[in-house]
Known about the structure:
heterotrimer; A: mainly alpha; 10 helices; B: globular
Amino acid sequence: MKLRPNAIIGIAGLGLVAIVAIGGVLVSPYQAMETNFLNRFATPSASHWFGTDEYGRDVFTRVAVGSFITLRVSLAAVALAIVAGTVTGAMAAYFGGWLDRAAMLVSDSIMAFPSLLLLLGIMAALGPNEWGVILALAIAYTPPITRVVRSAVIAALAREYVTSSQLIGNGDLTTLFRHVLPNCITPFIVIATSVFTAAVLSEAALSFLGLGVPPPAPSWGSMLADSRNYLGINPWMAIFPGIAITVTLLSINLVGDALRDRFDLRMAGGD
Amino acid sequence: MSSYFLKRLLMLVPTLLLVTIAVFIIMRLVPGDPVSMMLGDIENPELVRQMRAELRLDDPVIIQYLDWLADVVTLNFGVSFVTGEPVIGTMLSRLAVTAQIVTISVLLASCLALVFGTLAAWRANRRADLVISVLAIGSMSVPAFWVGIALIIVFGIKLQWLPTVGYVSPLDNFSESLQFLVLPIMALVVAETGGLLRMVRATTLDVLSKDYITAARARGLSERSVLFRHALPNTLIPTATLVGFTLGSLLGGAAVIESVFTLPGMGRLLVESVYARDYVMVQGVMIFVAIIYVLVNLLVDMLYPVLDPRVRLRA
Amino acid sequence: MRTMIWKRRDPIDVLIRIAAMGLLSLVAASAWSMSSDSNEIRVAITSDIRSSYPGVNRVSFTDDVMIHVVEPLVAHRDDLSVAPLAAERIDVSDDLTQFRFTLRDGLRFHNGELATADDVVYSWQRILDPATGFQCLPFFDGSTGAKVESVVAEDARTVLISLDQPSAVFLEQLAYVQCPVAVLHRDSWDSDGKWLAPVGTGPFQFLEWRKGRYVLLKRFSDYAPATGPASGLAGAKTAHVEYLRFLVIPDVMATTAALVSGQIDVVPLLAPVNALELRHNRRVVAMDHDGLSRRTLLLQTDDALLSDRSLRLALAHALDLEQFADVASFGLSPHNPSAIPTSDVMHTAAQSKTWSYDPDLARQLLEAAGYNGEELVIITSRSEQAIFDLAMIAQAMWSRVGINVRIEVLDFGSLLTRYFDGDFQIAAFEFSPRLTAIMNMHTLIGDKTASPARWDDPRAHDLLQRASETVEPIKRQRLLDEIHHLLLAEAPTINVYNAPIIDVVSTRLEGYQPWAGANPRLWNVRKTE
């Protein structure tokens, strides 16, 4: 298998984000929440590579730690959504009937529900914390996965191996998880990467609106939101978290493209 | 066709019921109520009691829900706890703002996407395609609010060409209203074009590899008629679906861009109402947004037979 | 073969040219002059006014608009003392129960009619009707002191208000800017008593309210000003501009951008950092004044840990409060340990006494309290940058002496609920402006069963009760000083500073002055070309 240029750039981008994140945490002499009121709004320098923010916190350290928070939240949310979406989608397709209808009704309802309110509500109910954000994002992104898995499973069910599995006496769940699902891996990977991109973007947007991971923990979106009030004093505060979000999203998108090219001929990039 | 439409509308009902029940429960779980938000740190227990009673906040939640539902069924969305204005009026005026920005920008984005997407597919893997594809993926990766901030800095603060704040209705003053619309529309177009464009490119590529295109080319048809008579119509349906989806989700979820440019739109109304614990308004907006979302998608479905005569809708 | 249709020119080139031309023409078409003309002053408010009913369904922005439209009988001066406004004379009986007001000569409603004593009586009945929901009803219905027994029109220009018991604070309550019992024409209500719009007697009249966007006021040309120099909300007022527009702009950055580009003329109450940002701009000028809002750290004395006085004192001594205030207010406000604002005449040297910054003492006190790194939680909100800053700075300073504090961020509604329930260990909080020393003390001291967030100490209750009943200033002062002394010993709350008032105005405005009461005053203000 030959790596396409988009995959190489994407993986390199993710590597860069990882290096900044891990390196930043290891190298930086500062803590992400360490304040220094005598050195606020510093512009980038040797001691503060990305400058400092309104509390004199090191922006480089915060961007680095922020990447862990953003990726942790998005990955956890996507993982939860994948598990929930796969189970419900597969069950709905396999068993059909009222289970299918109920699953689709709930999915439709969630998709007709702006994730914003969902998030605020769940966070308010759970108290403001990272798990609230994860749970809300997971709930918002389960329906698209459910739908994709459901239609893939329905397609797979028509194949002979399903009937043969049932004929040799395998139970429903064995048939479903051992024989049907592994054959649906392609659309699954495609939807997972696109949901991951959406989750990173949503996390940033929600933090930007003040509905994300609660401060003072650094999240890229909330760092951008903070910076807006101080653009005239220190525009660097807005530049670095913005670059971090864009590079990350760009990398995931490129890797997603490469995966799509690899697995899904219909969406292939060449002719 | 009309029975199809009716059936789809009926299917909306259980969805909306679920949405409203969820909203009701969630809003009541959030600490604070509209009365305390209105009074702030002023202590006046008698007034609190009186206002709570007036807003019927002390009734059991299930009773409050059923009362509200009974009103909504008769198309009475109630009156805002905070402003005392009818919910439906506020929603419509806010929707008008959001709809302007969103429809114009989605329209622009779709046109750009159709033109450049088709172009990229047609010149697949050439220099033009590469440039367009890089721009498209860049557009998908840049958060709209970051674009918005950048536009404000450049055009509002540095160049001072355009106002960065406020809103004038085009009905009041058309040319003035344009000034307020330009930047938010630009931000949305930048952020939304990428996804649409890639969709157009992928479907066009797909279509171009089909046998009938090869056949058309083999028959010696000009490249122009191959593209516009055969390829383009077949890319319209998937594109329309995505446009509908984008339109629907933006109409309810443009809160971020509305906050950046302080536009009095639906998204901001929702966020403000949640913060102010204006339960009636939140419920109204939610049900409204859900209906719009479903209707827009329904409309897209109804367009299918128009876009492609081979498609028949079945009830 | 594929290049046939675009062969004349590179298609990308064409399209880019078209797009660029479209964009440029769009920009050009919209680049009209955007600054407002000299007949209109535009003021930024961060949220809508909620209603036009003064004192009823209101927020501070409602007050900002209403001070220009309606006039109560009395109003505060710059030094927070009380002056007549719609009245020109006030006669108070010796027993402090009878208040006789003589209406100003030529007091006229915006519809042209002269205001009479009957109109005052009518307004009182409407506003004080319990069904109205007047926010300061407890001031007048006997639930927190004297009750208004009757409001009677003695002749066309004289109104007599009688109380059931003496009140030393009645006029102060009557002047309260948040809930003016305004002199309103009966056309302000419909025949069923439902509120329509204010027909008042102020220098500007209410013209148009576009919800969520702006409130437009128009100069009232038949306005007959009160006599005496303009001070606070009282004195002679002249409207120099034809229109006054209050624009709703919720976003700070958008507000400053609009100010710099001349779209608005006044931004009241800007955060220090945003004012700082504008200090080199030649088109605007930032004016500051000592404010009344109290920014404070409330300590819950009922909490298992914080019921220990040593721990509370340790928290106080661990803070470098001078630096705290300096950092938090960007050098604009001094530290004020007292519940009485620095600009109040009752704020004497005794009220400035504070806890020493002494980390070693703090550590000793922690040891005495048996504190062993237990987590304390401070609640705050992101909706108000200033109270978020309070929590951030406090946490940083406390961590230096080994106090383990976690910040819990809530939305403002939740913070308010937790405050009213007293459900917190430490709360970063801001009290809205109270215009008198006694009112400010009431935000500090209270009965825990009714207001669990307050300081419930029998000694403090007693002192405050005696201070409220004392008319003689020196004696009242002494009692208030004693309360402050007790506050330092008990540390039920750590007051940090009073929010500075910073109004940023366009240099085109002449005559604008900020004041302690904070509402922007646009009378006696001119706008040059």
